[in-house]
Amino acid sequence: MGRLSRDKRDVFYRRAKEKGYRARSAFKLLQLDSEFNLFDGVTRAVDLCAAPGSWSQVLSDKLVVSKRNSAPDETKTEETSNATIVAVDLQPMAPIDGVLCIQGDITSYETAQAILKPFGCGSEGGTKDGGETRAELVICDGAPDVTGLHDLDEYLQAQLLISAVKITTHVLVDGGTFVAKIFRGRHASQLYSQLRLLFDRVSIAKPTSSRNSSLESFVVCQQFNKRGSADLRNLSLDRDTVLDVVEGSPSLPKCIPPFLTCGDLSGWGEAPGTIMDADKSYPMEEEDYVQPIHPPIAPPHMQAIEEKEIQRQKQG
């Protein structure tokens, strides 16, 4: 979470700390769920690029804690929910109740195998008895460090999305759902068309908790169809045409997916239908300020500080 005075006055920043979330982005996933019912019937989920863990916290609340609390009193134990949640990131993460954290690179095959292992399946995604135990939901809120150059940022984000899609095809069950961040730009329509070859339904959503000044949106891909999907080796931004479909099937034309806005604060202490402006600074009292829930475990600047301290000791 940010430390600017603007962030402190941001209603979603403050609500996130009040509810114990590590970042305001938790409300983006909650608002996407209110529109698409992402968690209905889900017992196996994967969070890619998960750090600091706000989306994993939402998964834990929705798939583990809520189901545990809804059980009869005599069975309210940790075994009540059989949900399996795996969070993956290059950076270390603080533990989250009901979430298995894996530190790894989503572009590596070893990471895909590590994700499948907690689901009780092998590298091919099946169990010994032939059952299917891949993830039913894969989410990704990852983004590269923003440079301020929109074309470059959009291209890097699109490349990250492609990496997330490729590992998703290894860990997602047929009929599953994939949600990821996307920056609107000149590569967006090509990405939509390629995703449409992998999923039967592709929508673009902009939660109200996402600032209007931000070009981010979220692509919601439903009904994964691996058997009829495209050749993933051609999944690229360097091609002017959309993917060729396996076995010579005709390629799909470029599509324009529906664009939706979603989300209010009716479930967080506000009146039904209340929509808070993510770009507006709301007044607050100084005593209302709450410290961040989990400070970073290994912030990037710590290495520079340690190296500077070593140099100072050598010079001293």
UniProtKB/TrEMBL annotation:
Q: Where is the active site?
A: K181 (proton acceptor)
Top-rank lineage group of the source organism: Eukaryota
GO CC, one annotated term: cytoplasm
The residues that the entry says bind S-adenosyl-L-methionine are G53, W55, D89, D105, D141
**Catalysed reaction per UniProt?**
cytidine(32)/guanosine(34) in tRNA + 2 S-adenosyl-L-methionine = 2'-O-methylcytidine(32)/2'-O-methylguanosine(34) in tRNA + 2 S-adenosyl-L-homocysteine + 2 H(+)
The record ties this protein, via InterPro entries, to: RNA_methyltr_E_TRM7, RNA_methyltr_RlmE, RNA_MeTrfase_FtsJ_dom, rRNA-MeTfrase_E, SAM-dependent_MTases_sf
| Principal subcellular localization | cytoplasm
Transmembrane annotation, as ranges: none
| Annotated EC | 2.1.1.205
Specify the protein name. Putative tRNA (cytidine(32)/guanosine(34)-2'-O)-methyltransferase
